[in-house]
Design goal:
2 domains, PH-domain like
Length: 162
């Protein structure tokens, strides 16, 4: 039997990124005008421009989770244009899937956590403890009920439902 489920999670560091963008653009304009007075401000302008581009790309991030049969593909989409593949997780390497804060995760809190969620505390998150490249780690995801059911059909009692 084949399984397929997918979801997209949007991470917003700042609820409305427009003021942050305006701040960097105003700062860039000021350093460019001051660059007419002294050459060091041109260097400052380049630094501000790089900071603006970095900040802009990190303010608008989405994560795609795609579950196909026994594989979970995790991708990061920047500015709705650039896709970066984060990892492909084999479900056979999953030790446990449980809601964040579950007692079933007590033995795994010492493992490093990779947060691939929206960061919104009001959204339910699940922790996947897995072995990836020979190293145990915890992944924080916002899995849909459809994904949880599909995972439960494939890896059984390793999935702890709420």
């Amino acid at each position: 039997m084949e399984y397929y489920a997918e979801t997209t999670v949007t991470r917003r560091i700042v609820e409305n990124p427009t003021p942050v963008k305006r701040f960097f653009l105003i700062l860039l304009a000021i350093t460019l005008v001051l660059g007419l007075v002294h050459m060091l401000f041109w260097i400052a302008s380049v630094i501000v421009l790089l900071m603006f581009l970095w900040c802009r790309s990190n303010l608008e991030v989405e994560f795609d989770y795609i579950l196909v049969n026994m594989e979970l593909f995790l991708d990061k989409v920047i500015l709705s244009k650039k896709r970066k593949h984060l990892m492909t997780l084999q479900l056979k390497d999953v030790l446990i899937v449980a809601p964040k804060g579950s007692d079933a995760l007590d033995n795994y809190y010492h493992l490093p956590l990779v947060d691939i969620s929206s960061g919104n505390p009001n959204r339910p998150c699940y922790i996947i403890v897995c072995v990836y490249h020979g190293e145990k780690r915890r992944l924080q995801l916002e899995l849909t009920q459809e994904m949880l059911r599909a995972m439960r059909m494939q890896i059984g009692n390793k999935v702890v439902m709420q």
